[in-house]
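If your schedule permits, I should be very grateful for your opinion on a structural question. What I wish to show you is a protein chain and, alongside it, a tokenised description of its three-dimensional fold. Would you kindly read the sequence against the tokens and tell me how you understand this chain to fold? Here, with my thanks, is the record as I have it:

===
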Amino acid sequence: MAGALARGALPLFAFKGIQVRLHWSFIALPLYIVVSGLADDLGWPAIGLRLGMVGIVFVCVVLHEFGHALTARRFGVGTRDITLLPIGGVASLERMPEEPRQEFWITVAGPAVNLAIAVIAFIIMAAMGLVTLFSDLLLGATLYTNALFFLVGANLWLFLFNLIPAFPMDGGRILRSLLAMRMPRERATRIAAAIGRGAAVIGVGYGLLSGQPFLALIGLFIFRAAGAEARNVAQREQLRGIAVRQVMRTRFWTLGASASVREALDQLLSGGDGALVVTGLDGLPIGVLGRQDLFRAVESGSEHVRLADLPPHMAAAIAPDDDAHESTQRMVAAGLPLLPVVEHGALIGVLELENLEEYLLLRRAQATAGSR
């Protein structure tokens, strides 16, 4: 998911080696503000003020995500990028530590940033003196104090909202980390995910009944993400201790780097897989391409371009004796459809999610048959 978000986002800036991106869907938020403002007969100055307030909130969201990212770095976990969506931000960590205390501190760091901003803004307000503060409250706040009031309120809201125990939001991850200190991680995830999905259903219902579509959208996102995370953790536990060679495919689709997009599409239509490994003259992989990459190339008029010139997505090769659990994490985190498997200087297979799922289904079927 993370890789897919990054591919559909516009780079804004980078800090400490972490790229901040704006997802294309973000345009829905200012568009909604403008349309709803015009529908309520607000003037452009009032609409502009609303847009400015949203901008301030998202600056705080970026700082929140950097709180996660920079704390994760202290535990040796890198962050590929931060993506801004209409419903908030997503810091794409390379992995989430399975040590509960590390997950706890990484997760707490985000809301802690918002609490710190609120406290600093309040201290500045207090430093102005009670007389000024009360006169602004009674006689009308200045633009300066209005901004401080808004900073305090917005960041307190972000702090409290993110602490709602709705997995996979921060509050849900904090709950999962606390539970995982006393029980297996998979069970802790199931409990946190169930609570998260319950909260999401309430949020969707309330959002629809109260005419707040973005609240319903957030609830829907939480519901789907909670289920996906629970399945991901369960899969990781089932793959623990299993080598790549046990789950890799030995029949796979490859094409040389000099082949054209048209040739790849012809093979796809005649029965090619959903993704292919692009190889160099030595037969070793130089990257991977999914069917959507090929379709996008046709849409952009690159049908006769060489595969090497698209270019393919970089995919570090793995060895057949590597851990399947860790390799799958790398593949998912990078947003790749598969990883090539290389042994003794030769491409011998690919690791992909579909084959992993079939392997796990087979193991469950065998376990069921063995229990009869």
Remarks:
- DSSP finds 14 helices and nine strands in the chain.
- The first helix runs from residue 2 to 7.
- Residues 259 and 306 are 5 Å apart (CA to CA).
